[in-house]
Amino acid sequence: MLKLRRLHLEFNMRQLVALGWSVSGAVSMCAWAQEAIYRCGHEYTNAPRDVRQCERMAPQAVTVITGTRPSPPRAAASVPSASVTETRTSPETPRTAQPQQAERDLHARTIVGQELEKARQQLTVLVQEYNDGEPVKWASESRHHQRYLDRVSALKASIERTQRDIDSLQRELDRRPVVASTRAP
Asked: Considering 65, 72, 115, 145, which has the largest number of Cβ atoms within 10 A of its Cβ?
C-alpha cells in the first residue's frame, strides 16, 4: 500500500512539474509576443532603423480589427430587395438621368475642345517667336549672349510642353463620347 501511495504521489508530482513548465512556457511566450514597439514619426515598428530617433511605446493589449470580406456575387435568379426594386422601377430616374448625363458630357467635351483650341493658338505663337531656333534678338540680349541662349531654350521647352498638352487634350477629346445636343428648339 505504501508503494502504491508513493507511486501516486510521484505521478502527481510529475503532473505538477509538467503543469508548471507549461505555465511558465505560456508566460514566456506572452512576454516574447509583447516585444517593444517603437514609434518613429508616423511609423510603428518593432525593428526601428535608429532607436535614438524613435520613441518606445508603453506595452498595451493587442487589438485585432478584422477587415470586411467581399460578398459573393449574386446569382441572376436572386430576388432583389424592395428598395432596389423601387429605385429601378421609378419612372423619373431613367428619364432625368440620361439627359442630365448627356448634358454634362456635352459640357465637358466643349470645355476640352476650348482648351485644345487655346493650346493650338499658343503653340502657333510660340513657333512664330521661335523662328526655327533663331528668334529675333532683343536689345538687352545684344551684349549678353547667354540671355539669348536661355530665352531660346525656354522657348523650345515651352513648345515641347505645349505640344504634349495638345496631345493629351486630343486624347481626352477622343475618349469623350460625341453627344448630340439634348435641348429641344
From this structure: 115
